[in-house]
Amino acid sequence: MKSYDWSKLETVLLDMDGTLLDLAFDNYFWLELIPREYAKKHQLTQPQATRFLKDLYHNHYGTLNWYCTDFWSEQMQLDVVAIKSQVAEKVEYRTGTLEFLKQAKADNKKLYLVTNAHPDTLRIKLERKDFSPYFDELLSSHDTGYPKENMKFWNFIKKRWCFNSASTLFVDDSPTILQTAKSFGIGAVYGVSHPDSSKAPIEHRDFPLVNRLTELLEYSR
Predict the structure, then answer these.
(1) For the chain: N or C, fewer Cβ within 10 A?
(2) How far apart are CA 177 and CA 150, in angstroms?
(3) What is the Cα–Cα distance from 154 to 129, expressed in whole angstroms?
């Protein structure tokens, strides 16, 4: 585990899905429920719907469309927001999330949510798990015009919040996004080893990984 000095960190940037919240909800929604609803809507078999949507997802992966409920509602002719609201009770915190947020707040860190989730998705999840009081600001990439995979997103938030990149911690479950943050100059960049509690932990060597966010407090030096 790469150590850092928590006391010298000024700013903490946190992803939402797979970092604060269990990614099991999103994987269930997009990989199980939506294909089922799409199959019913368009009179397809479940395997047909799954294959079609897999290709459609792939074509837009890493773009702002990938995260846009309006885009998918139009593409699929489904009310994605309404369907998501109906199953929102499945939204859960990851273990250690609230404990970490409370400690970061107590230690007077500037705390910002940076999520690719559409504002509608953010609203639905906040209605179930309202972590907003811990943050100085919640920001959807849709409000910037660029996903977190794009360096222009990072230029946008740097101008908006005027943080010192070297004394900033960023946590996300996407290796691609972590690499973008590292290239931007974020001082402490950490991945998440078990973003989806229903699946096996992930492994990659490019970034140090934590499971519970509270591990970030334990490993600081």
Answers:
(1) C
(2) 8
(3) 26
DSSP 8-state assignment for residue 29: I
Question: CA–CA separation, 211 vs 23, rounded Å?
Answer: 13
Please give the radius of gyration of the chain, using alpha carbons only, rounded to the nearest integer.
18
Dihedral of alpha carbons 108, 159, 4, 131, sign: positive
CB environment 44-68: b (16+ within 10 A), e (fewer):
beeeebbebbeeeeeeeeeebebbb
Tokens 């906040």, residue located: 126
- The string of DSSP letters for 31-54 reads IIIHHHHHHHHHT--HHHHHHHHH
CA distances, 18 to each of 37, 172, 174 (Å)? 24, 7, 9
pLDDT digits (tens, 9 = 90+) for 75-129: 999 999 999 999 999 999 999 999 999 999 999 999 999 999 999 999 999 999 9
